[in-house]
Amino acid sequence: MSATHRPEHAPAVDLLDHGTEHEQVVFCNDPATGLRAIIAIHSTALGPALGGTRFHPYATTADAVRDVLDLSRGMTYKAALAGLDLGGGKAVIIGDPTTLRSEALLRAYGRFVQSLAGRYYTACDVGTYSADMDHVARECSFVTGRTVAHGGAGDSSVLTAYGVFQGMRAAAEHAWGSTSLTGRTVGVAGVGKVGRHLVRHLVEDGARVVVTDVHAPAVEQVLAEHAASGAVRAVATTEQLVAEPLDVYAPCALGRALTDEVVDVLTAQVVCGAANNQLAHPGVEKSLLDRGIVYAPDYCVNAGGLVQVADELEGFSFERAQQRASGLYDTTLTVLRTAAAEGVSPAVAADRLAERRIREVGRLRGIWLGR
Question: pTM above 0.85?
Fold first, then answer.
């Protein structure tokens, strides 16, 4: 029986089984503010779990559980591959942020994060912003991604996009022997917080860019910003975008963008984007490999935002964080070369490299008990 046929308040057993590798999953409810949230700590073997808070109107609690479990696991691998002394966690707030967001709700959420005593640090994600983290921080000591006015790093999408661009340069080097994207056509699906910054990097590097987004104002803003260059045009849907004659496809919206149907029609030789959990199912990575498409694993290239908010824990320096995010070029190239040498997909190679670090370093740390 599918999850949609179960009671909305009772996540399917298979979803709970899916989370058995997680250290801790916390359900947070505050009826007075309308808060319903889930915090998932996948691993603290390398340090306290750090991951953003997603605010999204999930159709069912089961959908929210599935997403937070997948996202938190991805954060463990992202931090490990990026060489950070952090574990993996994530949180989701269930509801429409345009109508449910309030200071009271965010402060209630902050109290739940505080109750974990430093095992989980939160930050921004889809549907949350630095100003939201300022509200969370009024009740919680374990918050990153705050506004610059409050001593934080500000919008982490800036270095997320920069890191994706560095990963794309590495994928271009691997595919074509040159890091330059000049004259290449790049399709960007999703031009919100991260995608918009990525488009700027691409245009500055001489690429032609085709964009799409379900939110029309986001497309209009990007087109207006680059009207003078003439390097950016839009199509109405993602289906149209992937059928375009592309060199690079950059999924930058929500996850599971790489389906069998997308891979079948995709003309791009490189896939490199900011979205988390891009593979609709494990078999997609083999389909990409069989078609000769270079896939830069999402959690490898989109770690720039994590690098940015992690730097905030030391007292934020944008220059230092950007220099560290530049290292994602080398990390991506290492993943792609390891995949080629070992005859596996880049996704498998990235997992192996991350798991090796967790295994070798994590055994020195154990479970993070908080502060």
Answer: yes
